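Progress against Task 2.4 (sequence-to-structure conversion) is shown through the following example record, which the project officer requested during the mid-term review.
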Amino acid sequence: MGHTQTPFTFQFQRERGYFTQFRRALLLREDQLLFEDLWDRSEFHIPAMEQGGHPLPIASILMAITLEQEKTIVRLQTGLAARLGEKQALEGQLTALRGEIEQLREELRTGLSIAHAELLEARYPANDF
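C-alpha cells generated for the chain above:
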C-alpha cells in the first residue's frame, strides 16, 4: 500500500493553528487583523503550495505570504508612480496659471492706471488755452 499524503488544506490549517498563541500575543488589534489577513491571502495559493510539495508546509506558506506582500508592494508602487505623474502634470498647469494670473494682474494695473488718469482728466480737465 502506498503512503497517503495529508491534503495541504489540513496542513495549512494545522500550521495556522500553531500561530494562534502568537496572534493572541500581539498587543494591537490592528496587528492581529493584519496577521489574520496575511494568512487569509496566502490561503488562495493552497493549490500551488500543494503542487510544490515542499517537505515543510510552513516554507510554502511563507512563500505565499511573501508573494502576496510583493503584489501589494508592486500595486502601491504603480499607484505612487501614477500619482507622481498626475502631480507633475498639475504642477505644470499651476505654473501656467501663475503666468496667466501675473499677466492679468499687469493688465489690471495698466487698466486701473488708464482709468485713474481718465477720471482725473474728467474731474480736473486740463485747460488748453
